[in-house]
Design a protein that fits this description.
Alpha-Beta Plaits; 4-stranded antiparallel sheet; alpha+beta; Structural Genomics Hypothetical 15.5 Kd Protein In mrcA-pckA Intergenic Region, Chain A; 3 domains; binds uracil
Length: 253
């Protein structure tokens, strides 16, 4: 793959911006400054920009801290959607979100073009843990409710019964009829957090996904709206959680 294409694929800028970066001498291949954007590089080459290592990958992995009020979709005619946070130079990379956060949920969303990883992260088979922070209105959590959640239970809220897998609820604080709690799920049923809270007569006022398979965003909302490539360590957490650590073969450049 050409050096300029690789850098653009990694989200470092448009093709013309990365050509500029290369001709200004900012990019090194195997320790040598390379100023020719058309130089071909392979998986074995060590490529750095400003001291940071660049992945030689055709599969791309990003973390979006989705703001509240954004649709988990790659296109919508009326509402803001996650595609609005993907820079134009990455639009042709067939990226899509892994699973779905509700319009009014903020937090961690993986965006990738790795279909196998996406499928596995969403499959109940791998029980990938997802941690949410919910602000709710209602009564304080009781021990027996927390125990019911931890052993799994049945919800009948849509005219039919649905089994909810064992989950972990950890109350955080409570005052004047509102509180906060962490909820760890290992499956991803539609509106699952809101439905669990509603089952116990609690209304979710705010919901933020903080963690997926050990990959994290902060509790504060200040990183909402930012898209960044996953680090190597974060990617390994996702591969480990889905049994892909052994089978992951990167397509050569
Ligand atoms: N559960 C919900 O209720 N909403 C989300 O966005 C994610 C999990």
């Amino acid at each position: 793959m050409r050096l300029d294409r690789l850098l653009a694929n990694n989200g470092l800028g448009t093709r013309s911006q990365v050509r500029d970066m290369i001709s200004r001498g900012g990019v090194q291949v195997n320790g040598a400054v390379i100023t020719d954007p058309s130089k071909h590089v392979s998986e074995d080459d060590e490529i750095t920009y400003g001291g940071d290592q660049i992945n030689c990958r055709t599969r791309l992995y990003y973390l979006l801290d989705k703001p509240d009020g954004v649709l988990t979709a790659m296109e919508d005619k009326r509402l803001p959607c996650v595609a609005d946070y993907i820079p134009s130079e990455l639009r042709s990379k067939k990226l899509s979100p892994v699973g779905r956060l509700d319009y009014h949920t903020s937090g961690l969303l993986i965006i990738t073009n790795d279909g196998e990883l996406s499928h596995r992260l969403q499959s109940p088979r791998y029980k990938v843990p997802k941690i949410y922070l919910a602000t709710f209105r209602g009564l304080e959590w009781r021990e027996n409710e927390i125990a019911t959640i931890s052993s799994g239970f049945t919800i009948k809220d849509k005219g039919y019964s649905e089994q909810i897998a064992p989950a972990n609820l950890e109350p955080l604080d409570f005052a004047d009829g509102t509180g906060r709690a962490y909820l760890t799920l290992t499956e991803g049923k539609t509106h699952e957090v809101r439905r669990i809270f509603a089952h116990f007569n609690k209304e979710v006022l705010e919901l933020r996904r903080l963690e997926l398979a050990g990959v994290k965003v902060g509790e504060a909302l200040d990183s909402c709206g930012t898209l960044r490539p996953l680090t190597e360590d974060e990617l390994n957490l996702l591969f480990d959680a889905t049994g892909m650590a052994q089978i992951n073969q990167q397509t050569p450049c």
